[in-house]
Inverse folding.
């Protein structure tokens, strides 16, 4: 084996980082990673930073040269701006890993166009985020910078990257589009998907309504070519329309398991699929109603339906039928006018497992689990690129331009940020973190007009939906000698996320007092009190968990919940959706946190780039016993992971991105199927990638926030 240092001749910091591990990729010396941080800052950053003499000079330059917008700074006095920047510089905790410092400087900070010199520090970037999204409210800007600098939370990559810039992309992470079956509907969706990909968002498209292969077109029987040729168009589109070469385009298409083209769809990611049909980079997801799982367990044949025949017969789009399949299935089976074909559910599952083993796809969206606890009028019909966004949407219909018959529905944006479990607990800041994050994300919804995609504009303007997630759970558990999935862990996450849920509601209610409730609130489960049934205090019931919460002052009582229910009924909520746990990528590195709420995949993660490779150590490896206490997502029993996520899911109104990790050496189809069935039974709303180690699977980095 080639010695690892030989790969990093040149940059001292890369060499130091490589010495973190030995030649077997095992931990060698954690101090080397810290030395790499120091080397990068002293030898690279110090020599590649623009030498401003003062903050006033820096801001004047940034505005005059078109790097910063002028308007948001004009809402404050210079003394207020200086106070925010000074606080940030004084209290910035620094970077705990080499990966954190390189990600921050190379991917997020504003650089001089000609030379590439850094025009801001990371604390400057957080100051700009606070000032911009506090929108002139100095007290709010102070709260935001305190929580951001303390690393209690951080906005998603598009918000962190683009905030305050004169030339920027959008602040939102991704978009979800419903698609009708007419040629006008399809063409407009292609147009919108391209426009959204250009501005930096991953795009999900619901293919439920698209005619299956062999359905009639304009009365010509058998003319429809099915979903795959259209899927191929989107596959090429997202490769073509990227973010000016800085970030690849990315998309996912969702198809119901009861769609007549489902077997072709599931085969589209297989390695041996014909290249004309294979979806090279486009992700795929399956919408799975309870009815399929019921029939699969009963080993009964299932009917696959042809969507256009349903629309002709009932005047209802198939996407709406799929959202209520328990009510529709027997009706469709017994109607001789509905075109359908019979298959064994085992064949569908076998094809799905084969695709999982070769590509990691499809994602699964358990649509009935999502709708069963949905409090907003309407139906949730699909998820996003990372399977954590689940919101109601309505279908648009587009006529010919001269006829002006467009009927604009509501589509979905993903406005995200993530908290850090360990920091929020350490600082007793659950309340202030949620207030800061909800205000920041709500301001993003106000600044994201997206008028060029009218259905996205409608959904965003009416619902102001956001998604506050979490990271660092596994690292926190390891630090405190708690096993992932243990009874103590389940009790901890129950207490913690009950508080997160409460304070997100409280913050959204306070925003509604100022700006009004989201459209349709009066008909929601929040207005009639359904949501608050069985909501109340959750306290520690194990000594170890009790000790963790000793200094925490923000656990809500039963009385707190009762008072909140009354206030919500009176004033409403500003945000229709509040919580969604995404798979944190770059921002978790910057925060030196374990990703999301799932276990680490590797205790020391290796990242390979075009000219180098770097190593990212899990947090707390310098603390006694922590290395031995870490177990990877491949080794922890799936039941323990699902049990933990299921407790968290009770408190999260949207979804949790759940990546299933299995060893290739013990890969069994039955294990994957049983994992899926257990996740569904425990109330999870989705499954993300199936990651099999020692296999090179494609991974979507766009949606890692």
């Amino acid at each position: 084996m080639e010695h690892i240092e030989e790969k990093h001749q040149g940059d001292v910091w890369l060499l130091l980082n490589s010495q973190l591990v030995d030649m077997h990729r095992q931990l060698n010396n954690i101090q080397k990673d810290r030395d790499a941080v120091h080397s990068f800052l002293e030898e690279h950053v110090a020599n590649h930073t623009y030498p401003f003499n003062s903050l006033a000079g820096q801001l004047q330059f940034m505005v005059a040269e078109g790097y910063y917008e002028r308007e948001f700074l004009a809402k404050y006095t210079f003394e207020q701006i200086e106070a925010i920047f000074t606080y940030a510089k004084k209290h910035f905790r620094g970077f705990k890993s080499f990966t954190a410092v390189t990600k921050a400087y190379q991917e997020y900070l504003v650089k001089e166009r000609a030379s590439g010199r850094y025009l801001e520090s990371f604390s400057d970037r957080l100051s700009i985020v606070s000032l911009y999204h506090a929108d002139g409210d100095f007290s709010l800007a102070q709260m935001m910078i305190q929580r951001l600098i303390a690393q209690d939370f951080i906005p998603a990559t598009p918000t962190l990257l683009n905030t305050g810039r004169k030339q920027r992309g959008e602040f939102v992470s991704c978009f979800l589009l419903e698609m009708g079956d007419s040629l006008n509907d399809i063409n407009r969706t292609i147009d919108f998907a391209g426009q959204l990909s250009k501005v930096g968002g991953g795009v999900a498209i619901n293919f439920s309504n698209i005619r299956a292969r062999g359905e009639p077109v304009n009365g010509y029987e058998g003319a429809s070519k099915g979903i795959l040729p259209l899927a191929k168009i989107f596959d090429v589109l997202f490769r073509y329309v990227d973010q000016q070469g800085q970030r690849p385009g990315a998309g996912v298409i969702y198809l119901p398991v009861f769609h007549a083209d489902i077997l072709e769809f599931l085969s589209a990611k297989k390695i041996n699929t014909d290249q004309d049909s294979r979806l090279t980079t486009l992700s795929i997801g399956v919408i799975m109603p309870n009815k399929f799982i019921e029939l699969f367990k009963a080993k009964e044949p299932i009917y696959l339906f042809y969507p256009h025949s349903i629309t002709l017969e009932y005047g209802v789009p198939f996407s709406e039928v799929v959202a209520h399949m328990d009510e529709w299935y027997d009706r469709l089976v017994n109607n001789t006018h509905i075109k359908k074909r019979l298959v064994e559910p085992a064949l569908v599952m076998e094809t799905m497992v084969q695709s999982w083993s070769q590509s990691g796809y499809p994602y699964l969206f358990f649509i009935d689990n999502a709708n069963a606890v949905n409090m907003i009028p309407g139906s949730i019909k699909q998820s996003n690129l990372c399977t954590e966004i689940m919101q109601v949407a309505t279908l648009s219909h587009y006529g010919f331009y001269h006829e002006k018959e467009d009927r604009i529905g509501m589509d979905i944006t993903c406005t995200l940020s993530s908290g850090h479990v360990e920091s929020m607990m350490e600082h007793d800041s659950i309340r202030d973190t949620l207030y800061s994050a909800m205000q920041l994300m709500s301001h993003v919804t106000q600044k994201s007009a997206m008028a060029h995609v009218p259905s996205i504009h409608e959904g965003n303007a009416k619902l102001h939906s956001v998604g506050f997630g979490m990271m660092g759970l596994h690292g926190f558990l390891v630090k405190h000698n708690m096993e992932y999935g243990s009874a103590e862990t389940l009790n901890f996450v129950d207490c913690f996320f009950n508080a997160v849920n409460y304070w997100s509601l409280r913050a959204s209610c306070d925003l509604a007092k100022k700006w009004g409730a989201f459209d349709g609130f009066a008909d929601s489960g929040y207005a009639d009190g359904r949501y608050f049934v069985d909501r109340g205090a959750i306290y520690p019931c194990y000594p170890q968990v009790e000790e963790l919460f000793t200094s925490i002052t923000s656990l809500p009582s039963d009385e707190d919940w009762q008072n909140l229910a009354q206030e919500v009924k009176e004033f409403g909520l500003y945000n229709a959706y509040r919580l969604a746990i995404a798979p944190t990528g770059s921002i978790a590195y910057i925060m030196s946190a374990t990703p999301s709420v799932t276990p680490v995949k590797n205790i020391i993660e290796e990242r390979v780039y075009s000219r180098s490779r770097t190593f990212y150590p899990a947090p707390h490896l310098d603390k006694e016993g922590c290395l031995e206490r870490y177990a990877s997502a491949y080794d922890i029993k799936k039941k323990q992971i699902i049990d933990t996520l299921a407790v968290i899911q009770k408190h999260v109104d949207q979804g949790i991105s759940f990546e299933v990790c299995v060893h290739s050496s013990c890969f069994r189809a039955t294990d994957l199927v049983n994992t899926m069935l257990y996740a569904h039974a425990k109330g999870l709303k989705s499954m993300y990638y199936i990651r099999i180690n020692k296999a090179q699977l494609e991974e979507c980095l766009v949606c890692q926030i």
